[in-house]
Amino acid sequence: MIVTGCQRSGTATSAAIFGLTHEEVLNPHNIEAFTLKELIPKLHQGEASWLAAPYVEQLKNYYPIIHLVRHPLAVINSLMGIGFWTETGHEPYRNFIMKHLPSMPKDPLEKSLYYWYHWNKQLAGHPRIRIEDFTNVPQRNSRPRANYTWDDLKSKALFNKVEELAREYYYE
User: Fold this and answer.
1) How far apart are CA 20 and CA 9, in angstroms?
2) What torsion do the CA atoms of 63, 6, 39, 20 make, to the nearest 10 degrees?
3) Is the dihedral of CA 158, 159, 161, 166 positive or negative?
4) Tens digit of pLDDT for each residue in 127-151?
5) How far apart are CA 118 and CA 11, in angstroms?
């Protein structure tokens, strides 16, 4: 099984729940160094990795795909809180995203909305679970968060599309 969605959506937690590795094989270093054909046998029982999302059409021939989602505000606040778009140390992950979403806006908050929307849209049609629906599971990855609200995002270009997709995923 491959569990994938946006980063900051709970892939570490879902890996623990399902007994999968977390970004052990599907990480930016391996993806750059090996072909997907070389990596597939190394996945063994599968993996939880947000980096699998661009490859689900190939991976679905070998593993069931689960689309993991998290409320857009939670993902956006997490990305902004860790300084994902601006701080050093995230470059391999940012480069990976930029390779697959080359038309990203420049503003970090706009990038976060664009990323959440387009990364999830590419997974349409696969069985979907919401990380918030798991109960009695300790959070595996706690980092600083920003505090943006829907009101803070209303003026952003993709707000309406993000809000619409969030409703499709049963988020308020």
Assistant:
1) 16
2) -60
3) positive
4) 999 999 998 776 666 677 889 999 9
5) 18
Q: What are the boundaries of each domain within the chain?
A: 2-168
Q: Identify which of 103, 17, 112 has the alpha carbon closest to the alpha carbon of residue 71.
A: 112
Q: What is the C-alpha separation between 41 and 28, in angstroms, rounded?
A: 17
* Tokens read off for 72: 């857009």
Dist. CA 56–CA 2, nearest whole Å: 8
Distance CA 14, CA 20 (A): 8
DSSP conformational letter for 161? H
Calculated CA dihedral for residues 38, 44, 49, 53, nearest 10 degrees:
60
pLDDT over 70 for what percent of the chain?
Answer: 97
